[in-house]
Amino acid sequence: MSDSPAATPKVVVRSAVVADAKPIMTLVNELAMQQVMLPRSPASVIENIRDFIVAEVDGQLAGCGALAVTWTDIAEIRSLAVHPAMQKHGIGRTLVDALIQDARRLGVPRLFAFTYVPGFFAKVGFTQCQHEDLPHKVFNDCMHCPKFLACDEIAMTRVLDAKASPAKLFGKPQRAIPLPQRTPSFAPPTLEKPGKG
Ligand SMILES: CC(C)(COP(=O)(O)OP(=O)(O)OC[C@H]1O[C@@H](n2cnc3c(N)ncnc32)[C@H](O)[C@@H]1OP(=O)(O)O)[C@@H](O)C(=O)NCCC(=O)NCCS
What we know:
The chain is of the alpha+beta class. It is 23% helix and 24% strand. It has helices at 21-33, 42-47, 91-106, 118-123, 166-170, and strands spanning 11-15, 52-57, 60-71, 74-82, 110-115, 127-129, 154-159. Strands 1-2-3-4-5-7-6 form a 7-stranded mixed beta sheet, with helices on both faces. The longest helix is centred in the middle third of the chain and has 16 residues, at 91-106. The structure holds coenzyme A. Coenzyme A binds at residues 31, 36-37, 80-82, 87-93, 115-117, 119-120, 123.
């Protein structure tokens, strides 16, 4: 009998397709029931299936993760999950590397994640930051979260392109859509003095 450690599984990472939506939901929501990550609704997985990648071992879903572009200078790593039986085999890191590659392809210079496992994200190059350090836009989805007013997730961030600061990406701060000229279509009512008669 050999004492050699278990062989590293052969992992295939690919873009998700609609048939992956159900197994992704099952994996994420089973882990969410253990309070280690947030749940995803069927609609949020199916509508955002193009954000997802999956890791397969022997043709079975072993993990998943999503890259959600939030704005021109930032994207979120979301719903990163590895099947409990497959954890600590490098699959989480492989998924993050693939999401980073996709972020680079898209020209996204900075990533963030909200997580309960800062130690893992530190291992894959993220550093902890304050929620307030992230742009307001990233909190859009938080409004739909049951923990909105009591968020206990830790914010982590990783810069992919330090030269692409928001100022360089946007130039001077300006309105995305110019406001139309205000042309009142009615005259404001004039107050008449209490009348005689
Ligand atoms: C967090 C998670 C995705 C990590 O996946 P994984 O496949 O087990 O991670 P890896 O094997 O690729 O680990 C990469 C490194 O991180 C370390 N690591 C893994 N999980 C860790 C944890 N919970 N805390 C601290 N370090 C961790 C590993 O030891 C490894 O370190 P090394 O490179 O020095 O050997 C997985 O544990 C998981 O699905 N957890 C439940 C869901 C979750 O917490 N998702 C996080 C996003 S919200």
